[in-house]
Amino acid sequence: MSDASGQRTDPVIVIGNGPVGQTAALLLARWGVASIVLDQRPARDLVGSKAICQHRDVLDVWAAVGVGAQVAAEGLTWTTARTFHRDAELFSYTFADQGRSAFPPFVNISQSRTEELLDAAIAAQPLIEVRWGRRVTGIVQDGDGVDVRCGDTLLRASHVIACPGAGASELRTQLGVSFDGHSFDDRFLICDIRADLPGWATERRFYFDPEWNPGRQVLIHPCPNSLFRIDWQVPAGFDLDAESSSGALDARIRAIIGATPYEIAWKSVYRFHSRLVDRMRVGRVLLAGDAAHLVSPFGARGLNSGVADAENAAWKIAYVRRGWAPEQLLESYHCERHAAATENIAVTTATMDFLVPPDAARAERRVDVLERAAVDAGARALVDSGRLSEPYWYVDSPLTTPDAARPFAGRPPRGEVPPAGPGVLVPDAPVVVAGRVTRLRELARDGILVLTTDALPIPPGSGPVRVLCLPDIDPSGELTVALGAKPGEVWVIRPDAHIAAVLDGPDPALLATVIRRTTGGL
Fold it and tell me: What is the pLDDT of residue 97?
């Protein structure tokens, strides 16, 4: 369906009203695209901490829809990750910021509160309609759109972003995608406790083989309002009800916090999985979040990667709908986000192989590494308590123009970020535009951003393109240093703030070609 100007008027349907679906709908609205959000639950269930650890680059995405600053303000900032073997600290590290981000490396805030803040933004957005109690029972595509059936109701959409969570087996079957991987035998016991624990509020603590959980691991995260999230690795068959009634749960908690008074705000047991669909794009349907990929929780790569899925999907669907890009741009969603999910599975699988060795040889190696790590810096580098979430680098994307002068060196050291270059998320820094101080990533998320030292004509027909001169917007030189930009270079930045290309000089024809590639036209 289109209006008199040829713009589509049918909505995008978002399946799933968790944080990934909420983010997708808000980002679509930012691009002027209406959406209907369907969720089979009768209402929001605001229970427990769930996904608590939000990366600063996710806060950046939420800032684009007016929520990031509030999530950061209400969340608890932590800057240090500490790792212990039994009672001895092995190492700690903080997190690099190549530029000067507006946000801390991580904040901890309950998923429930994040959902409430996103709900408030959605309520203020007339382009988003939320429908609870709608279970999707059928999806049929044709050359112009998608029919989505919810019982007796049939809805028409231009595209679908499917992010109903891990329990999306029926939807995946309808779309004909596999969900290969495996599930781990051990469980994790989660307790959100409220207690006064001075000195624990700004750090994540990870314990290997503590005497109060021998042979397994414990993870402790601080949260707002004197709340602490404790995760114990427990064996298959663990009975939470029996543990609670016998007093064993209290003993577990007391072993960590001593005689400090506490109360349990929430408790649960979960089993975790490592799975990935074979296709994240099926025609006009894009799979996102836990419906597309599941990873073990060490590294906070679940929700954070799901938000990146949402942003990638939203700008590409918007560009296609607005006629700024061909339909084939959507194939790059699969290329980029499937590669990101593959990286996340590789990272978290390596962590799980260290935490729960699958064979005797790796179990023996783990014991050796942990024992040597107390005195050997080289062994400490081999201790894997979870590589924390980081934005993926689209260096192999069909949208990225490689630069031989800036080759990608591979996965950076733990806690570091790769140097600025094609495919990498652009460093953030304050900039001045028309006398107003703003941030580079705010500008980038309005369309294609071109940074240069020379004036360039804007190529027509590629959607919003803005050309800015680095010396004008970066009087302090801070951004120029963060980029490592050289005189005469032209930097092309995508609508999701990833660097698409770095050109040697101001060649208008080459720039036009690069922008066509960035929007799927080559």
Answer: 63
